[in-house]
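User: Hi! I'm working on a homework problem where we have to compare a predicted structure to a textbook description. Could you give me the structure for the chain below?
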Amino acid sequence: MIFQIDFQAGKPVYLQLADQIRLAAASGRLQPGEALPALRPLSEELRVNRNTIAKAYSELEAQGIVENIQGKGCFVKAGRSPFSAPVRKGMLAGEIDAAIVMAHHLQVDREPFLELVRERLDHFAGQLNSAQNGH
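Assistant: Happy to help. Predicted structure tokens:
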């Protein structure tokens, strides 16, 4: 798996990495039980401190997306979210709000925005189906 870090972005590196792993798990590119890269090789590849990678993995573990198995590494977790429905809804609402603000700044109207959301949902559904069918 190839990760891309933008050191010029206003977003911390650990959050960029966590977002990319979360997206890969959601889209099926990372399957439940699949190992994440080890800290040292990934930190060398990305040219960041090992603690930055560890912080990203800890963030994902706290969200129930990965699990750290002592002595073996970090793996994509199978199963459901550990968050309650209201907490999940709140987390998602924050992300949607950010997308709405971005759309406003880019002067994207409601219907084109909603169409893009539908396209992206279809895209991820297709990726997930392909991953589940072994393609």
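For your comparison, note the following. The chain has a mean pLDDT of 87. Residues 38 and 70 are 12 Å apart (CA to CA). Good luck with the assignment!
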